[in-house]
């Protein structure tokens, strides 16, 4: 009885849409009975009532027939304008650590205009550095890197890759001592850090030592504190592995309390709403200004390159001149030595003849 009365009440529902244009004959949405709670998903209606029998007729509102509504800015929107690389310095996201959630990182896409440049886009915002806060839920050690799995409660997790640098272990003089100072037997095998899963052979760890390094500058970084259950703030560069987004760790900080985590979350949400969700738009004047700056920078770079080439050429010419001068000096010195040698030889022959030792033939025979 309740269902039938409910259907009678909603038998001839019509939703009117306010119109300011000329044509309004198709601006009513007619919902058949039993459709209690229809929802609109952006382009069509979907019934959430007891029956899916929904019929409607709707035409978009147009204040000006000649002006069409602008498309909604989404990540996959093909109507977005992707500006050339010389405009990136005007972007609010390219040269900064963008605070994002793991789910938003997985929504980043590449553009066909920037293949091989490792630049990702949210809408048309270029992004290369990101910052996240979450809890480490897994740590996996493999031969050349450590994989940390971060969960920031955004609906997805993300892998953080930390590169390893291997080097031979330094030799020690006392590798096999019978006992320590407490009397307990000592072992040469070091204690390996905790890992959810490890593929490193035990024999390999005895011969080499591994240190973690950052991916960009290859500076050493100690991640021994990044164990499962640790709340951490990470910063890293973006990459893909098997079509999945991942981070390369550059730096991190441990989050000590919930207040810091909530402050980061508030900043992240504000940036998402105020910046990332709004398409990046540049005017023609701004583009021309950036183009002129890029051309001037290119001219300066070209001039610097030419100056460096001139300096290198002058250096080569100077070295050639010095080499020729040294060769001429060496030849002159060799000539002087030969002349002095001949003079000494002649004086020796003259002295030998004076004392009756004969000529040059006798001297040679003796």
TrEMBL record:
Coiled-coil annotated residue ranges, if any: 299-336
Matches recorded under Pfam families: Stn1
GO molecular function: DNA binding
Low complexity bias: start-end ranges: 167-182
GO cellular component, one term: nucleus
PANTHER family per UniProt: CST COMPLEX SUBUNIT STN1 (PTHR13989:SF33), REPLICATION PROTEIN A-RELATED (PTHR13989)
Primary site of residence: nucleus
Keyword Coiled coil: yes
Domain of life, per lineage: Eukaryota
Start and end residues of each stretch annotated as Disordered: 167-196
Subcellular location: Chromosome, Telomere; Nucleus
Descriptive protein name: CST complex subunit STN1
InterPro entries in the cross-refs: NA-bd_OB-fold, RFA2-like, Stn1_N
Alphabetical keyword list: Chromosome, Coiled coil, DNA-binding, Nucleus, Telomere
């Amino acid at each position: 009885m309740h269902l039938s009365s409910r259907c009678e009440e909603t038998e001839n529902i019509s939703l009117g849409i306010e119109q300011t244009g000329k044509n309004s004959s198709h601006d009513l949405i007619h919902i058949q009975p039993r459709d209690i709670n229809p929802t609109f998903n952006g382009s069509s209606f979907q019934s959430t009532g007891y029956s899916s029998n929904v019929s409607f007729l709707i035409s978009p509102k147009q204040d000006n027939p000649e002006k069409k509504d602008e498309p909604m800015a989404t990540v996959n929107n093909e109507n977005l304008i992707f500006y050339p690389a010389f405009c990136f310095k005007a972007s609010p996201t390219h040269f900064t650590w963008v605070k994002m959630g793991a789910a938003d990182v997985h929504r980043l896409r590449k553009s066909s205009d920037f293949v091989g440049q490792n630049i990702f886009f949210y809408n048309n915002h270029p992004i290369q550095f990101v910052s996240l806060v979450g809890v480490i839920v897994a740590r996996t050690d493999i031969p050349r890197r450590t994989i940390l799995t971060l969960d920031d409660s955004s609906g997805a997790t993300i892998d953080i890759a930390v590169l390893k640098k291997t080097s031979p272990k330094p030799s020690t003089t006392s590798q096999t001592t019978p006992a320590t100072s407490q009397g307990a037997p000592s072992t040469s095998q070091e204690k390996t850090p905790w890992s959810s899963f490890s593929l490193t052979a035990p024999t390999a760890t005895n011969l080499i030592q591994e240190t973690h390094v950052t991916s960009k500058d290859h500076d050493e970084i100690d991640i021994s504190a990044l164990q499962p259950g640790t709340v951490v703030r990470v910063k890293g560069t973006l990459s893909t592995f098997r079509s999945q987004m991942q981070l390369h760790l550059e730096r991190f900080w441990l989050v000590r309390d919930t207040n810091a985590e909530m402050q980061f979350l508030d900043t992240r949400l504000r940036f998402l709403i105020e910046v990332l969700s709004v398409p990046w738009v540049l005017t023609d004047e701004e583009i021309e200004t950036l183009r002129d700056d890029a051309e001037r920078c290119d001219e300066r770079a070209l001039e610097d390159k030419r100056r460096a080439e001139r300096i290198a050429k002058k250096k080569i010419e100077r070295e050639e001149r010095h080499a020729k001068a040294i060769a001429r000096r060496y030849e002159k010195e060799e000539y002087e030595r030969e002349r002095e040698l001949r003079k000494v030889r002649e004086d020796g022959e003259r002295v030998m003849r004076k004392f009756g030792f004969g000529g040059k033939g006798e001297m040679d025979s003796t």
